[in-house]
Design brief:
Layout: H1 2-10, E1 12-18, H2 22-28, E2 34-39, E3 43-45, E4 48-50, E5 59-68, H3 81-85, E6 88-97, H4 110-115, E7 122-125, H5 134-139, E8 142-146, E9 149-154, H6 165-176, E10 186-188, E11 196-197, E12 204-208, E13 213-219
Parallel strand pairs: 1-10, 3-7, 4-13
Antiparallel strand pairs: 1-2, 5-6, 5-10, 5-11, 6-7, 8-9, 8-12, 12-13
């Protein structure tokens, strides 16, 4: 298991941030947000059909994914807001699928989520958009649909400090811990619509007003 963990970190295509909402952290008994690496084998493009182990837990979260334009350097931790936005080549609509080795997600509390490799499962990412208007990103409606039925709605305003604030915290924690953050990696910032159980064989779509974009996927039967 330890070797698999190190391989996943080395091959990370993306990073997930967890418990970036204050009330969620309180419920989990955590003092701060956590993160976990998502390997390339668990990152999928818009329209993906997911089978096998990805269908054991079918909860989905609607998130913004910020893609690094270049490798992160120590000086980047102290840059101003404009330069910080410049670290990211684009922002993408994303659907995160948390995963766990336990029977159910979070059944042993927040520390178990952290120990469970950050509850990393899968990630579906949509089209790239420029990181221009952070206020619009924070306020823009995010809507989750199963087929044509809207089942949840929210925005990045629920994330503590807005969509980009957890990124600064993550960059500092990860680099100080010795992780290398590389160009092309996507960082997803926490859920805008909460954790919602999804059906099998039914299209899942999330729309992001601030990006004028959406991302979609389907959980399907089979291995």
């Amino acid at each position: 298991m330890r070797d698999e963990a190190f391989k996943s970190i080395a091959a990370a295509r993306a990073w997930k941030l967890g418990a970036t909402i204050a009330i969620v952290r309180k419920g989990l008994g955590l003092s701060r947000a956590f993160f976990g690496p998502i390997p390339a084998s668990c990152v999928f493009e818009d329209g993906a059909e997911l089978r096998g182990f990805h269908t054991r837990l079918r909860g989905v979260e609607s998130e913004y994914g910020f893609e690094l334009a270049r490798d992160v350097q120590p000086d980047d931790l102290e840059c101003d807001d404009d330069d910080f936005r410049g670290l990211f080549a684009c922002v993408r609509p994303a659907i995160e699928i948390p995963g766990t080795r336990y029977r159910s997600l979070g059944q042993y509390g927040g520390l178990a989520l952290v120990a469970d490799f950050g509850a990393v499962g899968g990630l579906v990412i949509g089209p790239a958009r420029p990181v221009v208007d952070v206020v619009r990103i924070n306020k823009g409606a995010v809507r989750l649909f199963f087929s044509q039925r809207q089942v949840a709605a929210g925005s990045a305003e629920g994330i503590e400090g807005g969509a980009m604030a957890p990124l600064r915290v993550f960059l500092r924690q990860a680099t100080q811990a010795g992780y290398a953050l590389r160009a092309g990696q996507t960082i997803v910032t926490g859920s805008c619509t909460g954790y919602v159980q999804a059906p099998l064989n039914e299209p899942i779509r999330v729309t992001f007003d601030a990006l004028d974009a959406s991302v979609s996927m389907t959980f399907v039967d089979g291995k």
